[in-house]
């Protein structure tokens, strides 16, 4: 098989994979929209956070290809996540201190 046929198969595979991920993200979007309008009490917020976590995991691991990245890139991504968690914790501590 020539080079053009091989690259065409790879491109088709990438498009199919990204289309599948995109469809999963759209399904999760619809699920979060439905969950927002169903009265579940405190479970509404919990389900929204869980769905958002699944969506962000799909984006980080598959679209950003962090699953197959070099260790240094993984460390940089994890350090960014730790920083965001620290900022949320400090904000939450401030809110609790003002109550």
How would you characterize this protein structure?
The chain has 99 residues and is mainly α. The chain folds into two domains: 1-64; 69-99. It is built from three helices and no strands. The longest helix has 35 residues, at 3-37. The protein is flat and about 65 Å long. 0% of the residues are buried. The model has no long low-confidence stretch (mean pLDDT 90).
Question: Residue share in helices?
Answer: over 70%
Number of strands: 0
Give the H and E element order.
Answer: HHH
Strand portion? under 5%
Shape: flat
Amino-to-carboxy terminus distance: 70 Å
Uncertain regions: pLDDT < 50 for 5+ in a row? none
Largest sheet: none
Q: Please identify the structural class as seen in this structure.
A: mainly alpha
Radius of gyration: 19 Å
Number of helices: 3
Average pLDDT works out at: 90
- The total number of structural domains is 2
Concise overview:
The chain has 99 residues and is mainly alpha-helical. It has helices at residues 3-37, 43-63, 71-98.
């Amino acid at each position: 098989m020539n080079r053009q046929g091989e690259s065409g198969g790879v491109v088709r595979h990438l498009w199919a994979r990204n289309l599948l991920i995109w469809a999963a993200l759209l399904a999760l979007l619809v699920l979060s929209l439905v969950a927002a309008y169903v009265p579940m009490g405190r479970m509404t917020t919990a389900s929204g956070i869980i769905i958002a976590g699944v969506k962000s995991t799909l984006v980080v691991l598959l679209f950003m290809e962090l699953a197959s990245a070099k260790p240094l890139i993984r460390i940089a991504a994890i350090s960014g996540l730790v920083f965001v968690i620290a900022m949320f914790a400090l904000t939450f501590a401030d809110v609790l201190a003002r109550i």
